[in-house]
């Protein structure tokens, strides 16, 4: 019996995606350069399938894998982004892959690489990209999938991706979950939608990760203030996070943050968070988002701040030295009443900041969509982020509704619901940022979100002075508020040695 799908790359994500496919009735031919991984997935399949026939067939070469598949072949890759993807593609060409066969890249690839690959492999096979979010558990029991590329390939891949995607209850927008091997969720709305031409899916996933960085940083800042400013223990902060997780801040990241804070280190008996080195790692997707925002000219400062916050965390030795030399402010003592008020302020600050982060992410996607002609559907994107992915949150349902009500919404902040939410909570947001600033506790994401909000709602910015400066030293010209848009003006400013006021031409 031939297999339905070929799977290459059996690391944690690849292995789990394969088992997820198997749970949905697909027979998979698997290959990995590391033969022990092929053996491991076959063992796992034997354990999970019971008396049923093997669902996973191990292969020792690319040629053997192709030979085991029904034509036209469908092959899914889960290999590290970058050169390994091309390495596998070239081996598949050598092994005889055909022009009608489809190769789906599910790694965290740079979106421009996907665009180039579609061109490079044209005529040899159809290169299709599907970004995956959800980590190990999502891959195994339902992920959020962002497919893009050849529309004909999509018609062939759609049922496969719909099967392995996370599912949402269409009435409530809440995830429908099962974490039992062999018993997948088969009902509900799948968190997989065709995003657009190749590259668009990986772009959207990249922005998802930028939002993820900012979301994580905001939670960390709230923790930092509670810990260092309000003198709370990790377990006390975890208790607050668990309460927050029941309301508007309900999210996967909030839940896992509480769990991290509750964890005790086996070796020392200390809270694990105090044992973990405070240097944040990064694989690059947040950085790509910030770089793209700068290139597109889309203000996504909170996402960029979240990347910088990781950068400054990595300067551990310098920070330790600086502490001895650069004093901040005394942290004032707070009584219980003040503490409760401060915690509520942090809650509201986190909520308002989160709205701004999503506003930035969606605005970035909108500008990129215009630039590349992708015609992204933001209601659909918000929908597939409601379950399976790392940023899944109850909040995504409100974003879905905002874009369903107005598919031309220029910015989430202009949606009546979100505008009213910020109006209600901004006092506490400002208070939380001010308090942290006065205490000398960094809150770069929260304060940058507030600055984004204040810049966005400011009808006259000092960019007029900036334009004057540019015209002064470089004759860069400026537009006038009283003349038609697009007309450029330049005046003769005073010359060196003649410090007179400018003469209007
Ligand atoms: C996801 C995650 C996933 C990965 C991050 C980690 O959506 O499943 O975003 O893609 O865990 O890329 O990124 P960093 O190592 O850069 O934090």
TrEMBL record:
Q: Which keywords accompany this UniProt record?
A: Gluconate utilization, NADP, Oxidoreductase, Pentose shunt
Q: Per its UniProt entry, which superkingdom is the organism in?
A: Bacteria
Q: Where does substrate bind?
A: 108, 133-135, 208-209, 213, 283, 310, 470, 476
The text of the family note is: Belongs to the 6-phosphogluconate dehydrogenase family.
Keyword match Oxidoreductase: yes
**Domain 6-phosphogluconate dehydrogenase C-terminal intervals:** 201-494
Give a GO biological-process term: D-gluconate metabolic process
E.C. number: 1.1.1.44
How it assembles, according to the record, is: Homodimer.
Pfam families according to UniProt? 6PGD, NAD_binding_2
Question: According to its UniProt entry, what is the function of this protein?
Answer: Catalyzes the oxidative decarboxylation of 6-phosphogluconate to ribulose 5-phosphate and CO(2), with concomitant reduction of NADP to NADPH.
Q: Which reaction does it catalyse?
A: 6-phospho-D-gluconate + NADP(+) = D-ribulose 5-phosphate + CO2 + NADPH
* Coiled coil ranges: none
Q: Where is the active site?
A: 205 (proton acceptor), 212 (proton donor)
The species this protein belongs to is: Saliniradius amylolyticus
- Supply the name of the protein: 6-phosphogluconate dehydrogenase, decarboxylating
Q: Which GO terms describe its molecular function?
A: NADP binding; phosphogluconate dehydrogenase (decarboxylating) activity
Q: Tell me the route in metabolism or biology where this protein functions.
A: Carbohydrate degradation; pentose phosphate pathway; D-ribulose 5-phosphate from D-glucose 6-phosphate (oxidative stage): step 3/3
